[in-house]
Design a protein that fits this description.
- The protein is mostly beta strands.
- It folds into three domains: 122 residues, no CATH class; 151 residues, no CATH class; 218 residues, no CATH class.
- Helix content is 10%, strand content 41%.
- It is built from six helices and 37 strands.
- The strands form eight sheets. Strands 1, 11, 12, 13, 14, 15, 16, 17, 18 and 19 form a ten-stranded mixed sheet that branches. The chain has a six-stranded antiparallel sheet with strand order 28-35-36-37-30-31, with no helix packed on it.
- A hairpin with a 6-residue loop joins β33 and β34.
- α5 runs parallel beside α6.
- It is globular and about 65 Å long.
- This is Lipoprotein.
- It comes from Ralstonia pickettii (Burkholderia pickettii).
- Keywords: Signal.
Length: 544
Amino acid sequence: MKNTNTLRFTYLALCVALTACGGGNDGSSGTTDTTTSPPTTAQTAQGVFVDAPVAGLHYVSGNLSGTTDAAGHFNYVPGQPVTFSVGGVTIGSATGQAIVTPLALVPNATDVTNDTVTNIGAFLQSLDSGGNPGSSIEISAASVAALNNTQLNFAQTPAAFAADPAVVSAIQAAAPQKTLVSPAAAQAHMQSQNMCLFAGQWQFTHADRADDIFVVNISEVNGSFSSGLITRSDGTQAYLNGSVLYVPAMQKWMFTASATLRAPNATIGTVDFLTGSFTGADWSTAIGTYDESDPTSPFGHAWSATRLSPAPACAAAATTPIVPQGAVGYSDYHYNAQGMTPSMATIVDNGVGVAGSLNLGAQAITVAPQPDGGFLWGNPVQYGMNFASLTSDPNLPAASMVCMAANVGDGTDGLKSTDVLIAQTATKVTAATDLAGVTFSQYWEDCRRDGAPAATPAPVHSSIAVDASGNATITIAGQPMITLTADKLTTLLSGAPAAAVGLPGNVWFQAYRLVSGGRTQFAMVEHGVFTGNTNRGYVGAWLQ
């Protein structure tokens, strides 16, 4: 008989080492402060406004004021509120902290579906002049000037906000070529950006047990995470799961998790983890402590966590991908992982033509370059496909699919696609208009075009065609044609599940721009899990 014991712990988020204290001539007031330096007795700190990082917002905190820089940074006086505005439009106020999102501006809002939060997000995203709101929102000086005498009411339903004559006039004046971003697209964008602050692969370690090492992927779709089952030296087993959430009363992003222990023929009491914090300028580490509710429990002291993957794509520091020196990094989309948060995979790359080892989860795969510029997968991979080559090393793939021997009922012709790899030098595409005019004429799954057996190919090849306005037409053999508006496609690309735009199944999509050899190509990863059995799923790739 096995008994379980759940360890609960909570990390208080965003007590981040972005804070700088001081004044006078020590430079701590930051480059975005346009007023005179505060008295030497004052303290200042720096935060970032995220929906993605927003540049061009005016802010006021105590005797500080300025404009957020290209990375969304603002300065604030600890303990004082910060008020943000665009021209005459007051966006909202929040207690000064390391990260402020639209959620923090709305008291008692618990998620991005709050009407006021949705309207704030839609307004800011509509003002973007940079063309890539997935990485940053840039508000131009012209937009600010156009709104100097404008006031808006964000506290209304999204439908009423969109129909409000003042809002319509404001968008026409500040962003003449645009319309207000739809509520669904605004919510999907904010959710992906919020989770992006924490998304990626993390390693949790328990101070009392050297073999308590849990590796999880925090989803940038919904902030959930879970680990596989680990076995300790004493024979007990454990797994970790949890999620990131926003706590309005504290104006803090937090995450809670439980480590469930399995011990044969033993009863272990419950240990509650109560507090913790993130550290590191790029939210790269976290620590947590807890109270022992069972004095006989062998557990105690601290947990810690370290980010294993690169800094989140939504952070300004992540514009240049971070990979281990002497290695090529990949975003690894695994067939039965939840959502679209990839794990990090690297291959040692000591020079063109040098073989290396690629780690896919617990699998270490040998990759041997070939004379024709391709590469060969070693055991236990049964088949590998190279969709494009890296300019830096043509023997390594820019995008690839890995297939292994299939389980019964899975896969095609004895193969199942287990991983799709996208080089970290690729950039995510989160706006439908960035795919305008692009046709994905090939879909690959199980290392077969259309996922069909070689003996019985699909009568019509699957495709996704995006028109000049960003609207998409999806053609799949044997199924009715599907059309998506540009707003719906943007919602998908921003991390929302397909169900959010009316498509069936637990399916997600992520598009990438690949620049190699002077050419620009696009690829899209499709991933789904089975309803009721998330241990089973599939991963495919759409290509031009």
